[in-house]
Amino acid sequence: MKTENIKKVTNQAIEQLMEALNAGHSEALSKYLAAMAKFRAYSFLNVLLILKACPNAKHVAGYKTWQSLGRQVRQGEKGIMILAPIFRKKKESTSDATPKDDEGLVAGFRAVYVWDEQQTTGIPLPEIGQVTGDPNSYLARLEDYTRKCGISLSYSDSIAPARGMAERGKITLLPGLSAAETFATLAHELAHADLHFSERRADTNKRMRETEAESVAFVVCSGIGLDPGTASRDYIGLYGGDAKLLMESLEYVQATASRILEGIESVPLQQAA
């Protein structure tokens, strides 16, 4: 792909993503957010208890919450014990007391049980969009280009449930994803490596970094013929990103996506095979 073609593909992809972000949440993302709202945020101690009992835990919830989601805890599954606070019963109000005087007082803790998604069966949880298609030799090309950038690349189950993780000079991917999802995830993490490990990081926040990285992944995936569907739009929506934020980062997204596309096009086919 020639430089002028890469520029054309990049601009078209960004326009497409901008339109999708302006359209708002997809149906898939709306259903996903509604389901995720039923999962509680746990304290650090409870997270440790959950991971000790179930290192691969992804989504945990109580028995009734799973039922409300159309799933049932399998018979014989052992619950994961966590600690729930016991709040002191409110006193009767007096003339010299305010309603806040007796609220939020923890009198102790009690053991309660939760179960991970893998311990349940029933209606599948809603998922956000996924990238589809076949990257063919471009996956190997992208892996090779990543290493040529001086970034070590490995695959490990230890990062689950994350699909990818970028650190300075290192990218780790979750094995077992489809070729299209692996390509998209690597493009996303490579964008992080390119954009967010320099002095500029101090001028960004999580929302901006995730919007930029996923926008780059959208352009690169589109550039090689993959179908991002609503995947990038949904991912950006999860972090509160929008078309306005993408426009503010447009220069960085365009430059990084073009650099990656040019890089993988320059890898000889025999090397990528």
How would you sum up this structure, described in words?
This protein starts with a helix and ends with a helix. A hairpin with a 2-residue loop joins strand 7 and strand 8. It has helices at residues 3-22, 27-36, 44-53, 63-68, 138-148, 179-195, 206-223, 231-238, 243-248, 250-265, 269-272; strands at residues 60-61, 71-73, 80-87, 106-116, 120-122, 152-155, 164-167, 170-173. Helix 1 packs across helix 7 (206-223), helix 1 (3-22) crosses helix 10 (250-265) and helix 5 runs parallel beside helix 6 (179-195). Residues 97-102 have low confidence and may be disordered. The chain is elongated. The chain is 46% helix and 14% strand. It has two domains: 3-26 and 128-272, no CATH class; 35-122, no CATH class. The strands form three sheets. The chain has a three-stranded antiparallel beta sheet with strand order 1-4-3.
The whole-angstrom Rg is 23 Å
* Low-pLDDT ranges: 97-102
Number of helices: 11
Structure class: alpha+beta
Beta-strand residue fraction:
5-15%
* Count of distinct strands: 8
Shape: elongated
| Structural domain tally | 2
Output mean pLDDT. Answer: 90
Q: Classify the helix fraction into a percent range.
A: 40-55%
What sequence of helices (H) and strands (E) makes up the elements?
A: HHHEHEEEEHEEEHHHHHH
Biggest beta sheet summary: 3 strands, antiparallel
Widest β-sheet, arrangement of strands: 1-4-3
Instruction: Measure the end-to-end span.
Output: 18 Å
